[in-house]
Each structure stands twice: as C-alpha cells, then as structure tokens.
Design a protein that fits this description.
Blueprint lengths: L2 E3 L5 E3 L9 E2 L6 E5 L7 E3 L7 H4 L4 H14 L4 E3 L12 E5 L2 E8 L5 H13 L3 E7 L1 H5 L3 H4 L4 E3 L3 E8 L4 E10 L5 E7 L4 E3 L6 H17 L3 H12 L25 H12 L7 E3 H11 L13 H21 L3 E5 L2 E4 L5
Helix pairs in contact: 8-9
The structure holds zinc ion.
InterPro entries: CoiA-like_N, CoiA_nuc, Competence-induced_CoiA
Pfam families: CoiA_N, CoiA_nuc
Protein name: Competence protein CoiA
C-alpha cells in the first residue's frame, strides 16, 4: 500500500515517510514496514504471515506504480488514495471526488475469483458507492474473447459494452468500447486512449474462413464426443435439424452482444432450427422468439456479466433478438407485420 497511519493517527504517503518512525495499517492496526529503494516505488508492507484481510494481498510493483499514476491522472486534489471504509472493511485503490459525487476506483493487475469480485461490488453498492474497475496492461493481451473478459464487461449508453485499462508505460487509459462478438466469438470494437489515439479493433475474418472454423469445431466436437457439442447436436435432432447443416444465413450473424461464451453463429443456428419447424406462412411473434431463446439458453455458457444491471442484460438480449430478426427480414425469410410480429415467408437455408 502507498499510505499508512502515523502514531498520531494521521495518513501519510510512503514517499514522505521517515525511516525511524513507526507506521500502522489503518485496518488491522499492525505495524507495517516502510519499503523504499532505488528500484521500487515507496510503499508500506505488512510483516510476513499477516492475516490482515483488505490489505494482505501482496501488491506487485506494477500495481503500486499504476495506482500512483492513476491518482495523478485523475488529479491529486480530486483523489483520496487508499481510503479505508471501516463499515465495509474494504479499501478501494482510489476514491474520486467530483462535486458531491464519489466513485471508487479499483485497479486490478492480478486475477481475482469471481466470488471475491462480486463480494466487493456488493459491498460498494450497499454503501451507495459506484465502482470503476480499471485493468492492468497485462490484461490487454489476454482479452481476446468474451471468456476472458466476461466479469469485467460494463455497459453504458455512451460506450456500449466496454473495458478500461491503464498502461503504465504510456501513462494513459485505454478504453475498448462498443465491443461485440465476431463470428467465432472474439471481440470486435473500437479503442481510444486518454491521450487522443483512436483505432479500430476489427480483425476481419472472411465469412468463408469463419465457416471453415465453425465446421471444424463441430466435426472435432462430435468426433471426440465432447458433451457440449453432443448436446447441441441432440437439440438439432429433436427439432429435425442437423448441427452440420447450419443455414448459410447464420454465418452472417456477427457483431453480436457479448452475452454468451460462444460463437453467435451457433446461437443463430439453434434459433433457426427452432424457427424452421414452423410451416411457411406462420405468424411469428416476439414472444415465440423469446421462448426459443430461453429454451436454447441452457445449451450455452452465459457470460458472467456481473458489472451491469439486470435491466441492461434484458435490454441487451432484446437487441440481440432484434438483430437476428433484421437478418431474417433482410434475406426475405420474414415479412414485417408489426413491431412485434412477422410472417415466415421462407425457411432460412
Ligand atoms: Zn493490516
């Protein structure tokens, strides 16, 4: 940690501390050790085998440096460094204060179990405090697919699905925003940095390449009898379809919301298998689509989107369904009757 309590019970930064003085942890009150050298950022550490909960996680140099830089980035006068919230026994890395609003900032460099993350978020929320999670740059390389990012994804009207990182070398924030999934379930979207760079993050795979990738996955999954793929195949059988015969139209289903840890094409394929059971001419209502989506949801591993509200998730699923409907309308499979009903005019193939 970058700060500790003095004997007079005031807060002091490690960079301003004196070697001959005693300093204490604000949580467990144990004496802490001042660590200051030429190759490390000044900080305080507990003695070995300390059982102090909120402060015991060993902090890497990268974490300490990043935390310090973030405090400077947000403006030292607006920031409280490592404030200890006694009622929660929690200590955010920073507390941002703007006007009368406060925002806890957590800077995460190491991995954290989902249960702990949830616990911390619930703590802040019970305290009426919003929290912003900023990820260390070591996360940047890992965040290829939704599976690695699911618990960090946040949603806002302005940024869509987004992730925020801090780069210690460049000393800037990177915001990945308007994230969606491509045909194989990897992220697409935009990135901007706090020093003004903007770039596109689309590693465009051709429809042909995506089709090949998906078909290979299915063949492999069925050949080696991987339960997930066998279950998907079973669903298709029960609905008079074949997993290998994904209608061509489904390969166009991309830029999907990051709601499942799977290629959105497979999701579209199961929806289409359900739809194709209806005779041509049938009335299709939004309720039908919702019913099918709910039914197939058990075949997919849902993303653990714990940083957003239930309403945001409901809205996101709504957008996903409408995106699927638009695709069918564009390809002449559905005819629009009203805002929430369509006529099946051709079976997707
Ligand atoms: Zn302690």
């Amino acid at each position: 940690m970058l700060t500790a309590q003095t004997e007079q019970d005031s807060r002091i930064k490690a960079s301003e501390a004196q070697r001959q003085q005693s300093y204490f942890c604000p949580s467990c009150r144990e004496q802490v050790i001042l660590k200051r050298g030429t190759r490390m950022i000044a900080h305080f550490a507990h003695r070995a085998h300390s059982t102090c909960r909120p402060f015991s996680e060993s902090e890497s140099q990268a974490h300490l440096v990043g935390k310090w830089q973030l405090a400077e980035y947000f403006g030292v006068s607006n920031v409280e460094l490592e404030p200890y919230i006694q009622t929660l026994a929690q200590r955010p890395d920073l507390l941002l204060k703007r006007n009368d609003r406060q925002l806890a900032v957590e800077y995460q460099c190491s991995s954290i179990p989902i249960s702990r993350l949830q616990q911390r978020n619930q703590g802040y929320s019970s305290y009426g405090l919003s929290v912003l999670w900023i990820l260390g740059e070591n996360y940047l390389q890992k965040m290829v697919s939704v599976r690695h990012a699911e618990k960090w994804l946040q949603y806002s009207e302005r940024l869509g699905w987004y992730l925020i990182f801090w780069q210690t070398r460049q000393q800037c924030l990177i915001i990945w925003h308007h994230l969606s999934l491509d045909g194989v379930g990897n992220f697409r979207g935009w990135a901007k940095t706090s020093n003004g760079n903007q770039y596109n993050q689309q590693n465009q795979m051709s429809v042909k390449a995506i089709e090949k990738h998906i078909q290979r996955q299915i063949q492999y999954g069925l050949y080696y009898r991987i339960p997930k793929w066998l279950k998907l195949q079973q669903f298709c059988y029960e609905h008079h379809g074949l997993l290998q015969d994904i209608p061509a139209i489904c390969y166009q289903f991309k830029d999907a919301e990051p709601l499942i840890c799977e290629s959105p094409i497979i999701w579209a394929a199961l929806m289409t298998v359900s739809l194709a059971e209806k005779p041509v001419g049938s009335l299709i209502k939004q309720l039908d689509l919702e019913k099918w989506a709910a039914k197939i949801s058990i075949y997919f591993e849902g993303a653990q989107l714990i940083q957003c509200t239930t309403q945001q998730l409901v809205d996101s699923w709504g957008r996903q369904l409408m995106q699927y409907v638009r695709l069918l309308v564009q390809h002449g499979c559905l005819k629009v009757l009203s805002k929430k009903s369509w006529q099946l005019v051709a079976i997707p193939h």
